[in-house]
Amino acid sequence: MKTPVFVALFLILQCVSIRTTIEEPVYSPKKNNQNLKYSYELINWKTGDKSEAARFLLEWIQKYSENKFEYRVENEKKNHLRIILEEYPGNRLLTSNFIEKPVHGMLRILNRILFVSTLSVFPLIRHPEREITFLYTNSLMEEKSITIQSEYRVFFGLGALLALPWYEKEFLQKEMKRVAIDFLNQADL
């Protein structure tokens, strides 16, 4: 009875996720910044690395924005920002991958076969799409929405366990910087 528990625990512990931000984002400041106070609220950011990601995201928004952000859950109508972590909309059925991207679907099947046949030495690679939605009202009481894709890869397997876990925090910080700068470049706060 001890062997199945050990094997299950061993397989669960060999998962690493990394973000795949390639270029360094550039923030272009707006001339109409008015040094306003915004209240914000976080939705779906309560567990694990999600809370750390939210902390990094808010740090980058406050660093680059000239506005001040304070945590308040009150339902204010003016100068309020909601940051919503959408639940992985990219996790679809296997057949929908073949219809939309047949080459990508074949590579996913090949990756799964290699992962199983090498007993998790060759890593299983997943690419879930995560969306972060920013809902905000500005000083003119206009409600606006901006959705940004957060990209990362999840690696399962022994190789991932040995090679990648030390880079997780750095990749998370870079990805949240990219998301924050993309939001600030698109928003008219």
What is the distance, rounded to the nearest whole angstrom, between the alpha carbons of the first and last residues? 59 Å
Total beta-strand segments: 7
* Average pLDDT for all residues: 77
> What is the name of the CATH topology of the domain at 33-91 and 128-186?
Double Stranded RNA Binding Domain
Show unreliable segments. none
List keywords for this structure.
single chain; 189 residues; alpha/beta; Double Stranded RNA Binding Domain; 7-stranded mixed β-sheet; 25% strand; elongated
Outline the fold blueprint.
Elements (H helix, E strand, L loop, with lengths): L1 H11 L2 E5 L17 E7 L4 H17 L3 E4 L8 E6 L8 H7 L1 H16 L6 E3 L2 E9 L5 E14 L1 H6 L4 H19 L3
Parallel strand pairs: 2-3, 2-4
Antiparallel strand pairs: 1-7, 4-6, 5-7, 6-7
Helix pairs in contact: 2-6, 3-4
3D structure, described in words:
By secondary structure, the protein is an alpha/beta fold. The chain has a domain of 118 residues: Double Stranded RNA Binding Domain. It has six helices and seven strands. The protein is elongated and about 60 Å long.
